[in-house]
Design a protein that fits this description.
The chain is an alpha/beta fold. The chain has three domains: 187 residues, 3-Layer(bba) Sandwich (FAD/NAD(P)-binding domain); 135 residues, FAD/NAD(P)-binding domain; 58 residues, FAD/NAD-linked reductase, C-terminal dimerisation domain (Enolase-like, domain 1, 2-Layer Sandwich), CATH 3.30.390.30. It has nine helices and 27 strands. Strand 4 and strand 5 form a beta hairpin. Helix 1 packs across helix 8. The termini are far apart.
Length: 411
């Protein structure tokens, strides 16, 4: 008997821990594309990027219960057959399973080829940020005075902009939204973050898209490297470094051909079991982490992906006993699945903390403080509190977190 976990990051680690905790004593194999044991990723755009990237300092501690788990690192699963209960690894090796965990997460979205024509994706001043190697390569380019253009103003884009500015780089940020971090935080709070960035010298080009990367002149035999970014309004931003923080794509190609809904990650039920269109939930297949799309009973019954750092742990606690129950004939975990999403971001001197799902709100109110200082913002949907975000005011944030769980409404 064997459980195969595809994905060697936080979701795969937590799934392995919880499969053991659910009573599974047979074989567990974790297949991970990266050559590293699981490590924490949030510092890659912040303190690790600023101070140096070192795997031992970022590696997660592994529980003693995982001592006999087999880690196949530096290997990629290229295909899967739910009918035959097997996965295919790069090189053609087939690995059978009785239970399967999909924890393959995300990969960075890159510029369209027609926009980046003439500048190679790697080693030419273009960078994405997802792995240790990505962070190390970018850190080597962030020398004082290096002109940095960040494409994208989400979490990664804003954190990289703050870090690069702190390292002495002039930074421009380009994004189609009206304010940075608009999708997760809305216009009011996003505008507050924009003003704080601008006070440190970051320049924003909002409502704009990159039209083309221009190679630098006089590169010689080394090949073309990026020299500028031309925007859709004709603006030309000279650049030594371009960071493509354009969001991510779900790693689900390996699951194609199995009657699964892979339109945005892996469609799951409330027990994180993968749902087949014709057969319903698979008792022997679950998904964990950024790749899973599931209904959160705390808010409604709409399946959504949640990319926040705390969610793989919450999801593994649900998915693993669901999987073991499906393999052993046991009972599914009781009650609805209603985890509390949580995230934080550090940008310059600002530490912003959030609970719930601010992006589901249709109204935003400042409940404490001032947006240009410490504050608490509440996000409401139909009058019900569904999310909070704030700088400082931690006791109030924790109280409002309880209010989200209780389904409170605000007058």
């Amino acid at each position: 008997m064997r459980v195969v976990i595809v994905g060697g990051s936080l979701g795969g680690l937590r799934a392995a821990e919880q499969v053991r905790a659910a009573g599974w004593s047979a074989e567990i194999v974790v297949v991970g594309t990266e050559p590293h044991l699981p490590y924490t990723r949030p510092p890659l755009s912040k303190e690790a990027l600023a101070g140096g990237v070192d795997h031992p300092t970022l590696e997660f501690r592994r529980r003693k219960s995982l001592a006999d788990v087999e880690w196949r690192l530096g290997r990629t699963v290229t295909a899967c057959s739910l009918t035959e209960r097997s996965v295919t690894l790069d090189g053609g090796e087939s690995l059978g399973w009785d239970g399967l965990v999909a924890a393959t997460g995300l990969r960075p979205r890159r510029l369209a080829p027609e926009v980046a024509a003439g500048v190679a994706e790697h080693g030419a001043g273009r960078h994405a940020l997802r792995t240790l190697e990505d962070a190390a390569a970018l850190r080597g380019r962030l020398r004082p005075g290096a002109r940095v253009v960040v494409l994208g103003a989400g979490f990664v884009g804003c954190e990289v902009a703050a870090t690069a500015t702190g390292l002495g780089c002039p930074v421009h940020v380009v994004a189609p939204e009206a304010v940075p971090m608009q999708r997760p935080l809305g216009v009011l709070v996003g505008g507050s973050l924009q003003r704080r960035h601008e006070a440190h010298g970051v320049r924003f080009h909002l409502g704009r898209l990159p039209a083309a990367l221009e190679p630098a002149a006089g590169d010689g035999s080394a090949g073309p490297v990026v020299g500028a970014v031309r925007l859709d309004d004709g603006t030309r931003l000279e650049a030594d470094v371009v960071v493509e923080a354009l969001g991510c794509l779900t790693n689900v190609d390996w699951l194609a051909g199995n009657d699964l809904d892979l339109s945005d990650g892996v469609r799951c039920d409330g027990w994180l079991r993968a749902v087949q269109a014709d057969a319903g939930p698979r008792p022997d297949v679950v998904a964990v982490g950024d790749v899973a799309r599931f209904p959160n009973a705390l808010f409604d019954d709409v399946p959504r992906r949640v990319e926040h750092w705390n969610m793989p742990t919450e999801m593994a606690r649900r998915a693993a006993p669901s999987l073991v129950a499906g393999l052993t004939g046991g009972e599914l975990p009781p009650g609805p699945f209603a985890p509390m999403p949580s995230f934080w971001t550090e940008q310059f001197e600002v530490h912003l903390q959030s609970f719930g799902a601010p992006d589901l709100g249709d109204e935003v109110r400042v409940l404490e403080g001032d947006l240009d200082g410490d504050f608490v913002a509440g996000y409401l949907r139909g009058g019900r509190l569904v999310g909070v975000a704030g700088v400082g005011f931690m006791p109030q944030l924790l109280e409002l977190r309880t209010g989200i769980e209780a389904g409170v409404t605000l007058p």
